[in-house]
């Protein structure tokens, strides 16, 4: 079973690129972030024609997450995180596909740091950690997939010195990510590629894609039930280099189920 995560950076504007990738990669499950589309404009018909059922949690112009399943319809089990009734941003969606709990997330960026956006990032991260612990305690195989907007270590960025004042590298952001791992979640890419320079995001500015000046901020975390089934993990890096591409590349795992 192949499970992927892809920040599409606008699903309607980049729909041809998304459909190309789905046809070439054929993930069984694809978690999408940054849809930038309200639900009534989500391209469900085009994805259905491509062989994918979809559940989605959209928002006009910003945010938005979706879970696709090849040849099936994901069974939605929740949207949003508990703990803040005033939070109306579309950043978390959960579904079950073939007995696996799929949590798709788009964590707040948090810039500029310091400030209220960074405070919101940490507050949202706290709620994610609380929900992730419930998934751990539940005992079903589960994955948290998405754009975490966290560079876990200096090994996950081309040049940490130039990003020290960015919210993605702050000690509090990294500590929150570490709290997830301490619950028993496995960072799939690092589990299989502990020493490689692997990136998932290249900013459009300053020629960063041709220079491979990237960051690893898109992650697939597997709980204790799912991690022993991990057989492969990688990034479809070439997708980032296509015309009109997202500034992210898809990241994926293969699970022996």
Automatic annotation (TrEMBL):
Enumerate the UniProt keywords alphabetically: Hydrolase, Magnesium, Metal-binding
Which Pfam families does the record associate with it?
A: Exo_endo_phos
Task: Give the Endonuclease/exonuclease/phosphatase domain ranges.
Answer: 4-248
Entry-linked CDD domains: ExoIII-like_AP-endo
PROSITE patterns per the UniProt record, alphabetical: AP_NUCLEASE_F1_4
SUPFAM superfamilies named among the record's database cross-references: DNase I-like
Q: Does the keyword Metal-binding apply?
A: yes
Q: Which domain of life is it from?
A: Bacteria
Swiss-Prot/TrEMBL cofactor(s): Mg(2+)
PANTHER family of this UniProt entry?
EXODEOXYRIBONUCLEASE III (PTHR43250:SF1)
Q: What is this protein called?
A: Exodeoxyribonuclease III
